[in-house]
Amino acid sequence: MTTAIYNVSGMTCAHCVNSVREEVGQISGVSAVDVDLETGRVTVTSDVPLDDTQVREAVEEAGYELKA
Ligand SMILES: [Cu+2]
Question: pTM (2 decimals)?
Answer without folding.
Answer: 0.94
